[in-house]
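dude i think i finally got it to work??
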Amino acid sequence: MKRSAPDHYATLHISRSASPEAVRRAYRRLAQKFHPDRHHGAGDAAARMAQINVAYGILSDAQARERYDSDLDAAMHTHTPPGAGVAATLLPVLPSWSWALLVAVLSVTLLTLGLVALRSRAPLAAPASAPLGATQPMRIAETEPLVPVKPILPWTEPAQRQAVTSPDTEPVARLVREGTLHSPPPRGREGNAP
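look at this
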């Protein structure tokens, strides 16, 4: 069974029934072997020595060793139910921010669904005239549409607009009046000279 806490007995290479003297001898042997002063520049030796120090600190103290043994026994006897599968394995490993993200996403989803239901004016309760226990399903013809729409009309030809030929707004007349253009061009189609 996998445990998140390291096995201090395995770290010191001793059995669970080892005496305090055997714990001390195992610690001294491993400390001489992995001490950082003997292995200059080896980062794994310092990390290994830190593990050995933690294991010795717990297993050399009688009360701490007793608590550790009881926690180890409890961890060995607890098991995941057979149907739990991947969820029981992954849930303790997931960081806490993922739970906050999940709660936030669910909150936004529920809020959005609530606003959609509110804006669609869907009947959320039975009509006031019906008795409480006798709700009848509403027929589709009796309900109003969820979103009001304009009726679609058939296509019709748009009305022809008359061109506005007021002397005040016609651009050629304005240019002649201002003196920019001396005589207006003939009003014929291109290529049709008069």
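Helices lie at 8-12, 20-34, 43-60, 62-77, 85-90, 96-119, 171-178.
im so relieved honestly
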